[in-house]
Every structure is written in C-alpha cells, then in structure tokens.
Amino acid sequence: MDDSGKNLVVLLLQTIESLCFRNLALETILRSYEVPAWETFAAGLASDKRVHTELRGRFREIYEQLEHEPQAKDDTQTRLEQFLQSVKVSGKPN
Q1: Which residues of 75-86 are buried (b: 16+ CB within 10 A; e: fewer)?
Q2: pLDDT-based confidence at 94, cuts 50/70/90?
Q3: What is the rounded CA–CA span in Å between residue 2 and residue 55?
Q4: Which of 8, 35, 45, 55 could anchor a disulfide with 30, C-beta 3.0 to 4.6 Å?
Q5: How far is CA 31 from the centre of its chain?
Q6: Spatial distance between the Cα atoms of 29 and 34, rounded to a whole number of angstroms
Q7: What is the C-alpha end-to-end distance of the chain, expressed in Å?
C-alpha cells in the first residue's frame, strides 16, 4: 500500500472512530435524560427506506466510480477523501 492509500485508511479510521464516539455520546445523553422511546424512534428511523435512500445518495458518486470506472482510481480516492473530510468532526458539536 502506498502512502496515499495509508493516509486514506487512516482518515477512514479516524472518521469511523469519531462517528462511533458521537453515537456513544448521543446514546449516553438520551439514556441519562431518560428520553422516552428513543430506541423505538431510532429503530424506526433505521428502517425508513427514505432515510436509506437519502443517505445512500451521499455515497452514490463514489459507488458509481468504483463499480463502473475502475480506471478513475485517483479521482475516486480524491472524492472519497473529500467526503470523509466533510463528515469528520472537529470535536465541536455540529
């Protein structure tokens, strides 16, 4: 794996770690404030096809490039890095 590939993997791991931390923090807050039925609401949201469609739309270009344009590897990597930078949190609430 070259340096740009390693950097991309590090960025991906940092993003996943950050999102997991945010998820844990949110869950802790919801439990500590005893928000009623938050788990039911979250399950409903997770099963909502419209939400899945909207979320999938954020990844569509990257999927299309990976599936249909294997020669565009560098452009795909750049787009993936840009996407990951856009979801990466800075430690401040968004």
Answers
A1: ebbeebeebeee
A2: very low
A3: 30
A4: 35
A5: 23
A6: 8
A7: 33
pTM: 0.64
Residues sharing a CB contact under 8 Å with residue 80, sequence separation 6 or more, in sequence order: 8, 62
Q: How many CB atoms lie within 10 A of CB 14?
A: 13
Tens-digit pLDDT profile for residues 7-31: 888 888 888 888 889 999 999 999 9
Tell me the residue type at 15.
Answer: T
> CA 59, CA 70: separation in Å to the nearest integer?
16
Tokens, residue 59:
């990844």
| H helix runs in the chain, sequence order | 3-32, 38-46, 49-68, 73-87
